[in-house]
Amino acid sequence: MAETPQASGPDVRVERDGGIAIVTIDRPAALNALSPDVLRALHAAFESLAADGSAVRGVLLTGAGGRAFVAGADIRAMADLTPEQGEESARLGHRVAGAIEGLAAPVIACVDGFALGGGLELALACDFIYATDASTFGQPEVRLGLTPGFGGTVRLPRAVGLARAKELIYTARRIDAAEAAAMGLVSRTFADRDALFEGARATLAEIEANAAPAVGIAKRVLVAAAGRRTDRAAEIEIAGFGDAFRTEDMREGVAAFIEKREPGFTGA
């Protein structure tokens, strides 16, 4: 039975099913738009999950209602912002993305419907994106006289390459799930929402069979090394490799390999 911890609120629900946390943005009437309150609730939710440490083995991030993952930032809330307030709004979006990337456990964005603007940026902060065939992706900010502010210019090029990212941002073009998968933005597509969550849970089960500290270190290294010069990225990887030797699970994994048995990982 899933449990709802104190991090839940009216706009963001957090449910627990064993080691899996399901974080749901719950503003279906607004297509789950990212208002400042939603962003603050998301940040609190991921900070709370981080505080649970090894009890959280994986997270599914999704939107309620079946029409949208997140259709974008709350534009009405931005209409009268000053430049300084606009920058603070962007910082809040980046803090949320940082909390997702900083969580040791893997986070899968489960997209069913629109993932536009801030919604796509939120999904890009996750470790990978799974989507239903009915999903749509895009960075439409320039049509409003805006630019991506929650990480689109940083993470989208890493996902699809600089030229494709420029094309998507400059044209504000929307793409379907098949095209998103073909360009590497989406890792896997599914026929419907039920199949999406079944597939995401199956992936987390595969990950959970491995050493949790090693997965966490690998995530930290991948995030930190992205976009760095090769020599600097190599040093980050070397440090992470050394950190793995500080874990009990590394000793157990190597011993199990030598002894030709299944490892008994403890998460330590």
UniProtKB/TrEMBL annotation:
<dbReference type="GO" id="GO:0004300">
    <property type="term" value="F:enoyl-CoA hydratase activity"/>
</dbReference>
<dbReference type="GO" id="GO:0006635">
    <property type="term" value="P:fatty acid beta-oxidation"/>
</dbReference>
<dbReference type="InterPro" id="IPR029045">
    <property type="entry name" value="ClpP/crotonase-like_dom_sf"/>
</dbReference>
<protein>
    <recommendedName>
        <fullName>enoyl-CoA hydratase</fullName>
        <ecNumber>4.2.1.17</ecNumber>
    </recommendedName>
</protein>
<dbReference type="InterPro" id="IPR001753">
    <property type="entry name" value="Enoyl-CoA_hydra/iso"/>
</dbReference>
<dbReference type="InterPro" id="IPR018376">
    <property type="entry name" value="Enoyl-CoA_hyd/isom_CS"/>
</dbReference>
<comment type="similarity">
    <text>Belongs to the enoyl-CoA hydratase/isomerase family.</text>
</comment>
<dbReference type="Pfam" id="PF00378">
    <property type="entry name" value="ECH_1"/>
</dbReference>
<keyword id="KW-0456">Lyase</keyword>
<dbReference type="InterPro" id="IPR014748">
    <property type="entry name" value="Enoyl-CoA_hydra_C"/>
</dbReference>
